[in-house]
Write a structure and sequence with these properties.
Blueprint (H helix, E strand, L loop, with lengths): L8 E2 L2 H15 L17 E7 L2 E6 L4 H12 L5 E5 L6 E5 L11 E3 L4
Parallel strand pairs: 1-2
Antiparallel strand pairs: 2-3, 3-6, 4-5
């Protein structure tokens, strides 16, 4: 049995942005978030990408404009992310360098390997 809901895995953040985020935003210019909603949280995964030898999941409630900030940093040759630890130290997430962590609207988490 195949999983028709399998999310795409991109080789890196740049590929993720160019192949998943930009086309979505171009087709839906009014979207603020990847899921098209304006509020509420979700555990829905939009896609995955690889970064620092780990697989990262991008939640669908991530704001598109924040991903653009990270993409622009990467385009300048800068590493756009800082790896941070969750409060319980049981996982990692990515924060955008130079951006406040509080109310970041970026929900990118390391996928646990089992």
């Amino acid at each position: 049995m195949t999983d028709n809901n399998a999310k795409q895995i991109f080789a890196d953040f740049n590929e993720f942005y160019l192949k998943a985020v930009e086309p979505l935003k171009n087709a839906n210019p009014i979207f603020v978030r990847l899921d098209g909603k304006t509020k509420g949280d979700t555990r829905v995964i939009f896609a995955y990408f690889l970064y620092q030898d780990k697989k990262w999941k991008v939640n669908a409630d991530t704001h598109i404009d924040r991903l653009k900030i990270a993409f622009d940093l990467a385009a300048k040759g800068d590493d756009p992310f800082v790896v941070k630890y969750l409060r319980d130290n049981k996982g990692e997430y990515l924060a955008i360098k130079g951006e406040p962590v509080r109310n970041s609207k970026v929900y990118i988490y390391a996928v646990e390997t089992k």
